[in-house]
Write a structure and sequence with these properties.
Length: about 210
């Protein structure tokens, strides 16, 4: 029964998510709750558990004003949302691998010999990858985080909108990030909907699935 309730709740969250563009501009989500949602979304999987997602939370009038000229046709989301989350992929996330794996050993989640073997492989391979591969891996993993964040936000009672329409070549520098290291992935607006998003149509599973 418990698993059934959990499954029903999750299905409700997935089916109830909408891309909302107009939010209640007077509603503010606390920093504590945004931190909580980011922590929950960070349970998403990633290559070698390197967790390359990095998040810039823009929730001040000054930050929103700086972001405004970079969001193209998405100004309504920027102006009315409680916050805009700028999702980046860290192409040097392997620099954190020793901290991650050592902590896993300390918490009894990984044998020390597995850590040692994995570290040797990761630290010999990842730094030598071509930059375009590092960017691709970071973007894929960070997209998993982004989708999970939107579902987490829905579970917390909030609405979101993912956006790819922004000045990709300017946003990292505008918010004081190393443009060579941090690859822009997407922006996500979050808040309480003032106008409900439209329910959209999806192709059937038969149309998108190939059985072999």
């Amino acid at each position: 029964m418990f698993n059934s309730i959990q499954n029903n709740d999750f299905t409700h969250i997935v089916k109830g998510r909408r891309s909302v563009r107009h939010y209640d501009e007077n509603f503010k989500i606390s920093k504590e709750e945004i931190h909580e949602m980011i922590s929950e979304a960070s349970l998403a999987p990633s290559s070698a558990n390197l967790q390359p997602w990095r998040v810039v939370v823009v929730d001040t009038p000054e930050g929103k004003e700086k972001l405004r000229p970079l969001v193209r046709f998405n100004t309504l989301q920027n102006d009315t949302s409680s916050a805009m989350l700028l999702i980046f992929g860290d192409t040097q996330s392997y620099l954190n691998v020793e901290e991650i794996y050592n902590t896993a050993v300390e918490q009894g989640k990984m044998p020390a010999e597995v850590r040692d073997s994995q570290l040797k492989t990761i630290l010999s391979m990842y730094p030598t990858l071509p930059q375009e591969i590092k960017v691709e891996v970071a973007k894929i993993d960070s997209s998993l985080f982004a989708m999970q964040f939107m579902l987490v936000a829905r579970a917390h009672g909030y609405d979101t909108n993912p956006m790819a329409g922004f000045e990709v070549d300017q946003v990292a520098k505008a918010f004081d990030l190393d443009e060579e290291r941090y690859a822009p992935v997407m922006m996500i607006s979050i808040g309480k909907a003032k106008e409900d998003g439209y329910e959209s149509v999806r192709l059937s599973s038969d149309k998108i699935t190939f059985w072999r």
